[in-house]
Write a structure and sequence with these properties.
There is one protein chain. By secondary structure, the chain is mostly helical. It contains seven helices and no strands.
Length: 193
Amino acid sequence: MIPARSPRRDASSCSGGGVFAPSGDTGVEAEVNRLRTDLVAYLLRKTRGAGDAEDVVQEAFVRFHRAGHDLNSADARPLLFVIARNIQLDRWKADGRESARRSAHDIHDLDNGPRAIASETPDAETGLIRRQDLAAAAAVIRALPPKTRDAFLLHRFEALTYRQIAGRLGVSVSMVEKHIAEALRQLKKSRGD
C-alpha cells in the first residue's frame, strides 16, 4: 500500500527540471528529500536493511527521471512508490533465483545442510545385511506349504488379485486370504517382529 500523499506544493513554485533540478531550487530539493524519506520508510518496512532501501530509492528516482516524468505531475508520488516496489520485487526474485542456482550447483553445499545429497549406493555393511535378510526371507518362503507359497508368490510377484489366484489354485477367495496371511505371519516371525 502506498503511504498517504504529503502536502503538495504549488507547481508554480518550482522552476522545472524534473527530479534533478539545479541545486539552487530549494522547492524541488525539499520535495525530493520528502519523497526520498517517505520511500525509504516505506521500503524499510519490507526490506532487510537501510542500505538496500537507499539503493532501491536511488534506482527508482533514476528510472523515474529516465522515463521523462516530472515531480510536478500529480501522479509523481504514487508512480515513484510503484517503481520502488517493482525494483524491490525484482531484486527479491533475482536473489531467490541466484540462491537456488547457487545451491543447486555449488559442489560444497552438496554434503552439508538439509539438502545434502545422500549416496545411492549402500555401504558394505548395509549391503550384507540386506543380502542376509533376503536369504532368510527366501528360506522362509521355500519352507511354506505349497499352496501357501504359490498364493503368496502369485500375489506379491505376479500382482494377481485374490480372485485370480483362487481360480488358478482351485480354492476359494477366503482360502487365498488365509494362505497369504499365513505367509506374511511366517515372514514376520522370521524377522523377529
